[in-house]
TrEMBL record:
Recorded family membership: Belongs to the apyrase family.
Any Pfam family matching the protein: Apyrase
Protein name: Soluble calcium-activated nucleotidase
GO molecular function: calcium ion binding; GDP phosphatase activity; UDP phosphatase activity
Residues that, per the record, bind Ca(2+): 1-2, 57, 126, 187, 241
């Protein structure tokens, strides 16, 4: 559900098992060797003392550590009752492979408040990056809703918001990029290398369960809200959940 460079390796993250894979033979357009995904770590949900792998949705590097997070929303039943808050935790891995778990409930609540989506409203996250140059968190939500969660309606709660938060989430700005297309929400993004973290390439994806339809769009914009490339459909009718540059620019 994400791609990220860490420790000189391009990693991919599975949102069902919590496995972190190292990718090999991904370079170039015409590869002479088949792509390989080699399991390197398993990250557990919540505080780490769980029988379920983390539902990875985003990953980013901050101060030499890999931050791996989930949707940032409580898991609820159809009546809105909270069943689990494991997706509000973030796993942090150091360069030796040791993992600690941080409770980000307050951070995600601050983002909800800034977006006007406090409980029972919600925000779903799949795209969060740390900017080492600006020393800020950049958050591009997949879903933004002032209404309680509903399986069918959730598909139409896409977002055009960009949230910029200070390191401790005490100061938060919200900007808009283009117009809202309800079915489209951000699934991944990266800062364009050598742009001083001022230009973003992002993926927005669509999932329509009734029609068994998926598709993705790519777009480029700057952090001030100026569109540099309009949302353009990626051929192939697939949901892309990660974007990365083929070289580690960190």
């Amino acid at each position: 559900s994400e791609l990220a460079w860490f420790n000189g390796k391009l990693l991919a993250f599975d949102d069902r098992t919590g496995i972190v894979f190292r990718l090999k033979h991904f370079e170039g357009v015409s590869m002479t060797k088949p792509l390989q995904a080699i399991p390197e770590h398993i990250v557990m949900e919540g505080d780490g003392i769980a029988g379920k792998g983390q539902k990875h949705e985003w990953a980013t590097v901050k101060d030499g550590e890999l931050y791996m997070g989930s949707v940032g929303k409580e898991f609820t039943d159809n009546d809105g009752n909270v069943i689990s808050d494991g997706n509000l935790w973030v796993a942090v891995m150091d360069r030796a492979g040791d993992v600690r778990h941080e409770d980000w409930t307050a951070n995600f609540a601050a983002v909800r408040k800034a977006l006007g989506c406090e409980w029972p409203g919600y925000v779903v996250h799949e795209a969060i990056e740390w900017s080492p140059i600006r020393r800020q968190w950049f958050i591009l939500p997949r879903r933004v809703s002032t209404e309680p969660y509903n399986d069918m309606e959730d598909e139409k709660r896409g977002s055009n918001k960009v949230v910029i938060a200070s390191e401790d989430f005490s100061s938060i700005q919200v900007r808009e990029i283009g117009k809202v297309t309800p079915l489209r929400g951000f699934s991944s993004f990266k800062f364009v290398p050598r742009s001083d973290d001022s230009v973003i390439v992002a993926i927005k994806s669509v999932e329509v369960e009734d029609e068994q339809r998926q598709t993705s769009y790519i777009t480029v914009f700057d952090v001030d809200g100026n569109m540099l490339m309009e949302e353009t459909e990626i051929p192939g009718a697939k949901k892309y959940e990660g974007v990365a540059f083929a070289h580690d620019w960190s």
